[in-house]
Amino acid sequence: MAKVFISSICVIMFAARADSCLLPSSITEFVPHVLPAEYVITTVEVIECNSKTLQFTSKDSNFTLRRDGTIVTLNPVTVSSGGRTFSVCALDSGVETEIEVHLVQTPVQRKLAQSKGEDLLKRVKRRWSPPPINVLENRRDLPIELGRLVSDSDVNRKVYYKISGQGVNETPVGFLSINEDTGMLTMLKTIDREEFPILKFLTQVFDSNTREETDKPLEFTVVIDDENDNAPTFTEEMKFTVLEKSNTETEVGTVKATDRDSPATIHTKIKYTLLDGQNLFQIDPETGVITTLVNTLDREVQDKYLVTVEIRDLFGASNGLFNTGTATITLGDINDNPPTFRQTTYKASVKENEKKKEVLRIPVDDKDLANTPNWIAKFVISKGNEGGNFRMDTDPKTNEGLLSVVKPLDFEQTPNVKLEITAQNVAELVGTTATWATVPVDLTVVDEDEGPQFFPPSARLLVKENTKNGTVIGSYTAKDPETKSSQGMKYYKISDPGAWISMDRHSGELKVTNTIDRESKFVQNGLYTIPVKAVDTSSKTGTGTIILEVVDVNDNVPELPRQLVLCETEGELGSVAVEAKDKDGSHFSSPFNFRLGPDHDDNWSLKTVNDTAAILGQVKQLPRGIHKVPLDVKDLQGFGRVQVVDVRICQCRRGVCLAKESSVSFGSLALLALLLPLALLLLLCILLAFFCATKGEKKELDDMADSGGILLKSNTEAPGEEVDSNLIIVPTTVTDGGVKGSVKDVAVNAGWLGNQSSSTMGQGNGYHKMGTYDYNVDQYAYNQFGTSQMGRGHHRMSFDNKQQMHDSALQQAWQANGLFLQQRLGYLAADEEGEYADDTPHLYGYEGAGSVAGSVGCCSDQGADDNLDFLNSLGPKFKTLADACT
Q: What is the CATH number of domain 453-551?
């Protein structure tokens, strides 16, 4: 069976059968291990081949073949021990043959290869590339035979043919058939090229006896030739726009069309033609571009044109197919028509003093396209509005001009106004020689009875401050605008916050009635404003404004601060800035002249640093406290006085004294500080009495009736009377940190109890039963640093059933005095003047150990806490108290 089926099949109706040339099927060559570039391997030998049409190509890019079939290396090539193989193709008159080239590394003689017969020529079958079969579409003489397909294998054996593919068993099915015995190909149905331009099918040849395929399948192509059976059609809607009055040959739009016939034929060559409107437009016959022929197209005359367009294939031949369509050409608007007024003149009237009122409506006409910038009107007052009394607007709905008065008119000054109004468009005029139209407007101002008017509306008067009362500084009057008379006018001030000016009710004369002060808060930028009004005989009013321009005089001296703070710097003499201020104007204020007062103590120096400040410095080290320094400061005119400034010398932090130092002189608070130790001693004695009572035996207090307590209130500083020790009775006994007594509600009434935990009360056998109370008391305690602090202690009080307190008032007074002293100490500690800061308890940070020197307070001379010898020197009153405690 033949291996190459394609080489044995031909189309007998198109080509005659030809003899094949002889080519080797393979070539074997012995070559070196490495082949350099341009190394000649061998030449392909051919027999009965046309050397003019025969072409060789290599499938390996490292090799090339010359025209005569010589194989040459293009690049250096290495041949391995197993050899190297590549293919060469020979193409002759459409017939392609493949030759295998084997390169062997072992170098032997060519004769050895010939003896083996490896490179002998032999005839091989070649594969044909059959040309396509052409048939015209829309044939009516069907069926028609297209030609016979013949195989070389039918020479030696009986064969039959089969076809498959498009036109056979694939879409379109049933168009082609073949005679299996003769190989005749037949078309059975009419075919449309625009639907199926090409049919591809496979042809197979089989042995009739063995049913085996004798050749490889071969693909054939049937090309359907075009017939002009389709007219051209429009592809887009023909609606175009061009501006009116456009220049000639301005492009309007492009007509687009297509034809389904073959593009490679004249069947699709379309010609475009205008069947009407040729006097205004033209169309390019090849491209379909429509352009203008004239420049006089006017939208206001005709805004739309309908023209008929013909499209014909065969480029307009009479036998060509065609279609027609209508093109709509719309003219776009340009602003070639200005707005026009409907009247040649307009008249209106307006009341004087009237504003924000519409006076007149002015309609206009415009031929341009409505509601576009070419049509929308814009009105301008081109003449007569020099005072800005009028304004023109456009009504967006009607396009009318609206004339309004925005600033009141005065009949007495202008009884008649003549305006000129120009009507324009938002867009500029183009394509025309016309200009904007203008119309005159005659306005009559209507007179009204008005109130009096001041002239000028505001009067400016110059007056010096401190002008003597009763001085006439001018007058301010009003007139009736109709009569120009001031007869019967009365004048009133509307506002005069400083009451500086009086206004005569009949003449409008202005007098000074109070001291005018330029530095007053009522004066702004040197001006003082007084609104006034005038009332005529008909009770109509008019207002005006008097503006007093207050002239400055030198009536203020430079002022210094009353107190300055000078911060100490170790090893240096301190200084402080002194700044003066003057309320007068620039001519009567700075630069200032600074000097020390005549009574200064030579401890200070003064140096001017700028126009308003000087530096006050120490001449020698001075003690802390307040020092009074006299300073003499004068302004630019030499007006000033000596002022005493308190300079406080202290230690500072961020410019602020850490603690205010004592003054160089004693005051009332300093004297009060001397009494503080006595108050502390009194408190200490009461505390000692309290602790002593806890160690003694329990005692009952007899009811002293109206004794009033142990300590009696006295405001005398003379020696008091001696008190019998028997009168002083300790009200309670303190044991184990608790206070026991028999008085009913003592702790509650005295205010000692804090949080009550429980209480039970009963009565029997003539005495009261009291439960247990927990209470908190404010107390002082000394910590590890020797300093005292105030805290809350917790004590437990229990009342036993066997003891009674005969006088609760005595106990209350005793406790109230202690609380009063505690509150007094708290007040002294918080005193803002800080004069008792050293004599009150302070809380200091722990520094690792207590001070060996003990307390430095007012009671330091008492010695250690456990030394009570000082009680012997407290006097008879405290001695009596101590006896009662023991």
A: 2.60.40.60
